[in-house]
């Protein structure tokens, strides 16, 4: 198996920070020599604060996908260091368990971060096989409780962590493996029933009940971009699901909004672009509503980034105005929220921003939507972060050579810019609506350009400065 070095680049911008003192001028620096990650063999699967010191630590997955480790951020030494007691090697007998995802969370609500580990027996030869799951309960001093807790299996569509009933316990949403019939079975909730008196059990699988009018039929896609995120502006997280219709080869999404005690009800749905990859959620235009950033590559290998702007009622400009949000009361649901862009059924083309990547990615490369070296499906998402601190999220995209993962693969930083006439990606009405487009960052980006074997890229605030 290929050993992929993990490259970290630090962006130094804030003059008074520790980082800036280490790196006196603003710019991109390759810091992997000095932050203790040089010897990591494998990939970073998740971020989280393990020891409760308010600094982000990382969880790495071993190259053979059978072990994971924790690297803690050490503020004083300004480096990551392996927490030796927290490495887990999963036994491959009596049954193989190849890890395909790790989701940190507090599953027993004791204030300590735990890990939900998902895996399959043979994700390469039997990609649709049972998804086994187990929780390792975190224990700050010794790493993990040696006894993991087995969780009832799901189908290959990895369950989403969410809070079904607002009790602050982490539940899961997905298809239960037991008795699953494709196209027939509906969603289930792994309801968190943890109690210290029954320490070996966390979840109980029950049917998911949506309320109100039924939504459109949806078979969850694999991989999916399911998320628990506020989309109607009431400050309560809603359920976003991505669906795949194999007969039409069509990707779509459906949103169920959170009505607190009245459950989750269907709100909106729509198509995603052909060849859509992982959806990223971010407020791209700074209006307070979460938009969708969708990468897609068509059958000819032409890749683009689509931004689906979330339309919500505006802020009130006078006291008597209705259908608007008062500044003093921002968390009000907009029942009419919608996403403007629907590339195939374009109802509101005025807001359409489609950013073609042909002229932006390195020669011969195409957007990477999945990690080709991963056993199972590891979607590569677009990461957002405001690298220049102008209030608008910038994008980090990963590209590679189609069909050949030994050829160069790169990360490209795209800066958010206002839509302009010169920008082919913006229709005139998008310019009028002050939508955003992107421009490749080249100045000071040499350290990024030098990384030639990128499998994933993310923004991370080292030392939380
Ligand atoms: C949905 O309703 C059924 C029948 O009333 C119930 O058994 C099940 O627990 C409910 N699901 C959840 C997640 O509460
Ligand atoms: C939502 O749309 C309906 C129908 O167009 C309208 O009557 C209602 O006032 C709208 N609500 C808000 C909060 O904008």
UniProtKB/TrEMBL annotation:
Gene3D superfamilies: Integrin alpha, N-terminal (2.130.10.130). Residues 1-20 form the signal peptide. The keyword Iron does not apply. GO terms for cellular component: plasma membrane. Keywords: Signal. This is Integrin alpha N-terminal domain-containing protein. It comes from Mortierella polycephala.
